[in-house]
Amino acid sequence: MPRLRSALVALALGLVAVPALAVQPDEVLKDPAMEARARHISEGLRCLVCQNQSIDDSDAPLAKDLRVLVRERLKEGDSNEQVVDYVVARYGEFVLLRPVFGWHTLLLWLSPLLAVGLGAFGIWRLSRRRAPKAEGLSEAEAAEVEALLKRP
Question: pTM value?
Answer without folding.
Answer: 0.58
